[in-house]
Design goal:
With 98 residues, the chain is α+β, with helices and mostly antiparallel strands. The chain has helices at residues 26-32, 66-74; strands at 51-56, 81-83, 94-96. The longest helix has 9 residues, at 66-74.
């Protein structure tokens, strides 16, 4: 909520931190943090249900592959989301579920 002086109050709800080895998928990391991220395909990258929004750190990720783009299009996944099962972690990220 913004006050008359221009300050903004922010609330961070259910913030969780999990440390994983480089190369761990974002889906695996989310599951270790007990986040409810769907995956009907067993993390094979075909169902598109594991879409997460990257809030911070997106610049450290590999660009979307054509396969990821096709999966998202076929499953009508928001273009801003990334498939957690397709992302190998290399640095810190802040994510949220849509």
């Amino acid at each position: 909520m913004e006050d008359p002086q221009g300050w903004t109050d922010e609330a961070l709800v259910d913030a969780l931190e999990v440390r994983v080895a480089a190369g761990t998928t974002l889906l695996e990391a989310a599951r270790r943090a007990s986040l409810p991220v769907a995956s009907a395909c067993g993390a094979d990258g075909v169902c598109g249900r594991c879409g997460l929004q990257i809030l911070e750190g997106a610049e450290t990720l590999a660009p979307e592959t054509e396969r990821e783009k096709k999966i998202k299009a076929a499953n009508r996944i928001d273009g801003e989301l990334r498939l957690a099962c397709r992302i190998a972690l290399v640095s810190d990220l802040v994510v949220t579920a849509p």
